[in-house]
Amino acid sequence: MKLMRIKAIVKKESIQILRDPLSLAMAFLMPVMLLFIFGYAITMDVDNLSTVVYDRDKSSMSREFIAEFRESRYFTIVGYAEKQADIDRYIDSGTARVAISIPEDFSKSMKTGRNAEIQVAVDGSDSNTATIALGYISAISELYSQRIKKNPVASFNSPHSGREGEAGVPAKRVVALHEEGATQAPLIAAPIVTSRVRVWYNPELKSRNFIVPGLIAVIMAIIAALLTSLTIAREWERGTMEQLISTPVKPPELIIGKLFTYFVIGLIDVLMSTLIGIYLFDVPLKGSPLLLMMLSGLFLFGGLSLGILISVATKSQLIASQVSIIASYLPALLLSGFMFSISNMPAPLQIVTYIIPARYFVTMLKAIYLKGSALNLLVFETVLLSIFGFLVFMTANRKFKKRIE
Amino acid sequence: MKEKPSNPDDFSSNTAVSVTNITRTFGDFVAVDNISLSVKKGEIFGFLGPNGAGKSTTIKMLCGLLMPSGGTGFVGGYDIVKQSEEIKRTIGYMSQKFSLYDDLTVEENIDFFSGIYGVPDRKKTGRKEWVLGMTELGNRKTNLTGTLPGGIKQRLALGCAILHEPPIIFLDEPTSGVDPISRRNFWNLIYEMSKSGTTTFVTTHYMDEAEYCDRLALIYRGRIIAHGTPGELKEDYMKRDVLEIEVYKVIEAMDILRMHDIETAIFGSSLHATLEDGDKAIPVIKRVLGEARIEVGKIEKIVPSLEDVFVTLIETS
Fold first, then answer.
1. Within chain B, which residues score under 50 in pLDDT?
2. Range of the domain at A112
3. What are the phi and psi torsion angles at A6 (to 5°)?
4. Domain tally for chain A?
5. Of all helices (H) and strands (E), which one includes residue B245?
6. Which of B99, B127, B158 has the most A C-beta neighbours within 10 Å, making it the best mutation to test the interface with A?
7. Where are the alpha helices (DSSP H) in A347-401?
8. How far apart are CA A147 and CA A142, in angstroms?
9. Residue B277 domain boundaries
10. For each successive 10 residues of chain A (405 residues), what is the average pLDDT?
11. Which residues in chain A are closer than 8 Å to B65, comparing Cβ atoms?
12. Are residues B157 and B242 in the same domain?
């Protein structure tokens, strides 16, 4: 192995990438674009639910109760119904996705210490949003009734004293009745057992906080395989490979030279994505940035080697790029634990996830970002990623023949 | 870690390339059929044949790029089957397709191959200057290679393939698609290198280029149908005479001669007639053309060109 030859290849590859606008765009623009598209598109948070209110009580107390919803960022009141039929109209037309109906005896019941029942209808055509909405409603109602119980007078004077702190409490006691795509749920206020929930690692339960680190892993999986998948195939297609294999260059020298160039690009991409995550998406990085870069490097080694292997095996840019997208993107998206929790998968599928490098990288990034984990907690992932990278790299070297078949 | 040549007798002797009975098949198609040949050190060896005859397949096997289906061969004393990597350290190869990087500048291409061939640092600058000199690209070294004209590209490709001063070079159709003046220049380069002891194995389908070679092999449909020096080939294989006939109305004259069963072809502004006995035919031709009122200039027996030889050989094989 000669350093001189590796250097020559690194220099050549760098010049070629820098000179080709398409390669440049793919190397530096594509990851950023993917991060933007996915970062803004994938959100599991439910905000600003359009809500219609049917206040039959029309008391100061019922208005205060409605204000609780209005003040929270989860609900936006889009209209007030005058009769029951209005609610149907709002939900049917899609103008509102939630309807809150306050009974005539609402304030009377509250003042006399009886349970007040409000009626809630939620558009169940998006069941995920519906479930979360029910959770929010139940939480806001509980908080409100607790406050009234403790300090009935204060509640009249300062309607905004209780903020919607604990969000996302699951709808425990909601019985959902399906009726024309809508869920009707009677809510009983004043619970007997109160749970004080504390969420670790992501106290605000912002889905973006765990989506962005996972997303960086998925994007890097695609970019890594895609970048290198073209390099060997391109040389075969352009005829330059025939010249290269007639020289004394050794397969590891050629592969390392190409890997190194794209490795640097990959690290720059990780750095850019991390900075975008921190400054644009407000995702805090709790762990060590150095560890993040080191483990990203390890992942890139495997991912880039996979691209080289695909390129060596296919010898065609078109096929190589398609194979690499399928081989990297699909598993990274579906089986890495990024979108769907691995523990919820059927057992055979869970076993499959062990051969998907993105699985370890998603775990690593989430741990470093959210928990601030150090390397000692990521030994398993580090070891398996190393094995993966090593095996793929060796296979690519063995598969690369300095002969025309 | 240079391994010893496995055929030291051959290496120390005067032979640069020797192959015995090599064959290469692609499925049912036999591209190279039982070829044997040898090239002496310092020789310019021409490998001649029409497109698809098996020239490139043979040259790729010699360079260690393609595994032969059968037979043995040695290049620089190294076995083409078992020591292909040793061969690659000994040779320079210029493939038929233009194989430099179009998106790199002249200088960057030279530097790249200099690095790949492991040209030592102390020689690097000198070799680069040499290539820039032979390509006359000294003042265009920062031009992108893709923008150069074809002839200069070919010279640059040759320059890059021999940066490491290999003792044996293989050139696969180096002048195809290059204008005549550039071809001439290219051959001058090959001559110069040959003078300094480099062995050159060159394939071509240009018959006129064959005349520049020390020795030739004619390949047709995967088989060698003739070999020897250009002079030997003409003497041994061309039993018939060729007459050069100067006429003004070439096409009419050709038609008339063909009507009299005389094999005739147009060569520039004159005709070539191929016959068993030229001396006897001269008065006949004069009479026939005279009767048709076609003015005839000089008629003389000439030494046949390799093209005449090759056409005859293919017709008889």
1. 1-2, 8-10
2. 49-188
3. -60, -45
4. 2
5. strand B241-247
6. B99
7. 347-353, 357-366, 379-399
8. 9
9. 238-316
10. 93 95 91 88 76 90 87 87 88 88 86 81 82 84 78 45 37 36 47 63 73 90 92 93 94 96 96 92 90 96 96 94 92 88 90 92 92 88 96 96 87
11. 242, 245-246, 402-404
12. no
The predicted pLDDT at position A168 comes to 36
A242 touches chain B (CB under 8 A): yes
Indicate the residue of A11, A15, A246 with minimum beta-carbon distance to B88: A246
Per-residue model confidence (pLDDT) at position A343: 87
Same domain? A160 vs A225: no
Give a yes or no: residue A369 inside a domain.
yes
Distance CA B267, CA A327 (A): 62
DSSP string, B171-230: EESTTTT--HHHHHHHHHHHHHHHHTT-EEEEEES-HHHHTT-SEEEEEETTEEEEEE-H
pLDDT of residue A62: 87
Residue B202's DSSP bridge partners are: B46, B171
Same domain, residue pair A226 and A324: yes
Name the pTM for this structure: 0.78
Cα separation values, A38 from A208, A219, A326, B74, B293, Å: 10, 9, 18, 59, 89
Chain A residue with CA closest to B98: the answer is: A239
Is residue B85 packed enough to be buried (19+ CB in 10 Å), middle (13-18) or exposed (0-12)? Answer: middle
ipTM of the complex: 0.82
Q: What is the pLDDT of residue B177?
A: 77
CATH number, domain of B264, equals 3.30.70
CATH number at residue B198: 3.40.50.300
Count of CB pairs separated by less than 8 Å, A with B = 83
Contacts of B128 in chain A (CB under 8 A): none
Query: For chain A, how long is the longest CA-to-CA vector?
Result: 95
* Token output for B126: 């000198």
**Residue A45: Cβ-neighbour burial (10 angstroms; 0-12, 13-18, 19+):** middle
- A255, A183: one domain: no
What is the predicted pLDDT for the residue at A205?
64
Does A178 fall in a domain? yes
In a domain, B95, yes or no: yes
